Amino acid sequence: MQVPLYHALIRTHHITSRKKVAALRKAAGKHGCYALLRSGGCPGIMYCKGSEEAVREWVSTVQRLRYKDFHLATKPELIGPASAAACSTEQAGLFEVEAVQSFASEMERRGIAEWWRRAMEFA
Predict the structure, then answer these.
(1) What is the distance between the alpha carbons of residues 119 and 63, in angstroms, rounded to a whole number?
(2) Cα(first)–Cα(last) distance of the chain, in Å?
(3) d(Cα 20, Cα 94) in Å, to the nearest integer?
(4) What is the pLDDT of residues 38-79, one digit of tens each?
(5) Where are the domains of the chain?
(6) CATH 3.90.1150.10 fits 6-119, yes or no
């Protein structure tokens, strides 16, 4: 039986500290979750996916790093079955993109673009 997948989205002012990114990479590996960051400038966007416990622990790690303007755009929530099927084969770890457009493309590929737009307050 497939473990239910959860996801969460975090917005920050920016993500530039390589030391903090290294801590997030370590946390993603430790908790066995997939994390995607839009780093390098404003805005900072973080997406996390995994088991409910893994996502909650990863979000807690982000909170402890005290990012400027931290905003939990969506609390950890269950991913719908269609979206879960689209992204169930991704490996755990942290991945980065440099542009909001690239981040949006990744959300589209997962079938959660509409969810992402609402969370980012674009829609």
Answers:
(1) 18
(2) 35
(3) 12
(4) 998 889 999 999 999 999 999 999 999 999 899 999 999 999
(5) 6-119
(6) no
